[in-house]
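Database export, one record per block. Field names are fixed; values are copied verbatim from the stored entry.
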Amino acid sequence: MPSLFRLLIPKPRTLERDTLVFTLDDGRSIEILRVRDPRARRVRLSVDERGARLTLPPRASLVSGERFVREHRDWLMQQLALQGDDEDGAPLLRDVTAQLPLRGEQLPLRWLEGRYARLQREGDGLVMQLPSRAGNAAVRRALRDFYEAEARADLGRWLPRHLPTLPRAPSRIRFKVMSSQWGSLAPDDAMSLDLSLVLGQPSAFEYVLVHELCHLIRADHSPAFWREVEARFPEWRAQRDYFHTEGRRLKAGLRRLLA
């Protein structure tokens, strides 16, 4: 029978989040997302394109969590280095960033002063026009608008080829910065696609589109579903392998550009 003392201890029913500032051995200070999860059974440290995360079970103390991070600081530095080891991962800095990723390539970027914040294609490169007083938020918004416009242009080329073989079209398609998935289809046939798809090779982007379109026919991942994918995109396996090797880099690159 549980003791009265245990019954009096409040149990968190939702995730509790705060930030732990930790100093690495090389002198850098990083912010670690600290999450107290009522479902967690042990202390866990993880790193992905969003940064470092420390997960604590309900009864773990903050001191024990910090001690866990210190004990695993070498592993933490290695994982952070892996996340940052790519050309596409630098933040977007006004008058500093000289190239941007798009469709598997690095395109040269020029910075000009203009009346509106706008990023556009010019020849084989890109031009970012900004008012003199435009802040970082305006720069990031212009970049995101540009990437979404380019992604929708790709959809405009691919959808006419695939829609005639489907029972219906998606109710709408929107682009999001997704943490793990590349796409999803909601019960109301609304499709979500990861905006970082436009940074990678176009064939991989088209595969994700076809994958989600096939969920309009089969909502599962049964052999029948994969036959539908195979019929429309026979090279899907190669694109899946591409995501296994390049996917984390693409997601991390977009997040840093928009950070």
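Remark 1: Helices lie at 4-8, 62-71, 73-84, 136-162, 202-214, 223-232, 236-257.
Remark 2: The first strand starts at residue 16 and ends at 23.
End of record.
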